[in-house]
Please model this.
Amino acid sequence: MAILEILKYTIPSIVVLLTAYFLVKRFLDNSEKKRLLELKYEQQKITQQTVVPIRMQAYERLMLLLERTAPNHVVLRVNTPGMGVRELQTAMTANIRDEFEHNLSQQIYISSEAWELIKNAKEEMVNTINTSAAEAGEDVAVFVGKILERWTIYKQTSSAIALEFLKKEFNERF
Model:
C-alpha cells in the first residue's frame, strides 16, 4: 500500500516533468531554428547587396572588353606611324590578349555559355588579325583594310553574338 501511495504522487509528477521538458525542448528548438533562419536571411541580404553590384560590373566590363577588342578600336589604339605589318600584328594581338587576361576573373559572374562566346570572339579576332597579316605582305594599309573588310563582311561576328548574348543574359538576371 505504501508503494501505491508513493506511485500515486510520483507518476503524475514524472508526467508533468516530462511534459514540461518536451515543451521547453520544442520551444528552444523552434527558437534556434528561427534564429538560424533570421541569420541566413541577413547573410543573403548582405550577399545580395555585395554581389549584385559586382555581377553588374562584370557584365559592364565584359561588354567593354568586346568593344575594345573590335578591330576598329584596336587599330586606332595601337597603330602608330612607322609601324610595320608584323609590329602592328604583334601589338594588336598582345593588346587583345591583355584585355582578355585583365578580365579573366569576371567569368565567375556570368554563365559558362556567355564566357565561351567571349573566348570565341577573342580567338576569332586574333585569327582575323593573323590571317590578314599573312595576306597583306608588308603594306600596313592593306593589312588594316583586310581586317576591317573581314570584320564588316560578317554581320554576325563572334563579338556581336557574344555582345547580344551578354545583353540578353544581363536583362534576364537584373
Notes: The chain has six helices and no strands.
